[in-house]
Amino acid sequence: MKLSYLFLAEGFEELEALTVVDMMRRAGLETRTVSIVSEKIVTGAHGIPVTADTTLDKVDFSTAQWLILPGGLPGATNLGHCAPLIKALKAHAAAGKPLAAICAAPSVLGANGILKNRTATCYPGFESFLQGSAITGHMVEVDGNIITGKGPAAAIDFASAIILHSLDKASVDEVRKGMLLD
Question: For residues 163 and 171, what is the distance between their CA atoms, to the nearest angstrom?
Fold first, then answer.
């Protein structure tokens, strides 16, 4: 099974990042957290330090399934300034492989032309960065191989959409039931 990667930058939104990783792992999807700098410990927007599974320089993008960007500030801004990550996101998108971004992070995809002619959503106030996309304002938006989420309150449904795209509805239902959601 291919690995999926969720990228952590200083100032990431903890709820969005950890909810997605937790739910994907519950579904049996191999998911690794990746620090975009050389240090494995990354501090979130609310001061919670998280030890990433690996660092960006050790990721094999050629075999990656999902590339996932949590939001948060300045986390999303820091992701957007990471040239090796941007290069990987563009290549992943060009190959039609799945991408997901939530909260402020869809702005990273939008600023790099990845959301052109797509339907997307984001945290209110970041719409101008979703260049060329139709912005819905929905909590979660799925457009082919790209999933976007509005913000922290959407984290569970955002993760559920990733699991559904990767596996099936029964897998989503099982994870949600185990979390006492449904």
Answer: 7
Q: What is the C-alpha separation between 53 and 64, in angstroms, rounded? A: 15
Model confidence pLDDT, tens digit, residues 46-73: 999 999 999 999 999 998 999 999 999 9
- Residues in contact with 177: Cβ distance below 8 Å, sequence separation at least 6, in sequence order: none
CB neighbour class for 41 (10 Å; exposed up to 12, middle 13-18, buried from 19):
exposed
What does the alpha-carbon distance between residue 4 and residue 12 come to, in Å, rounded to a whole number? 18
* DSSP 8-state symbol, 89: H
Candidates 43, 113, 101; CA nearest to 74 is 43
Report CA torsion sign: 91, 69, 58, 31: negative
- Distances from the Cα of 63 to the Cα of 12, 137, 158, angstroms: 25, 32, 23
Give dist(CA 32, CA 14) in Å, integer: 15
Strands (E) located in the chain: 4-8, 31-35, 41-43, 49-51, 54-55, 67-69, 99-102, 119-120, 134-135, 140-143, 146-149
Cα–Cα distance, 72 to 15 (Å, whole number): 9
| The model scores a pTM over 0.85 | yes
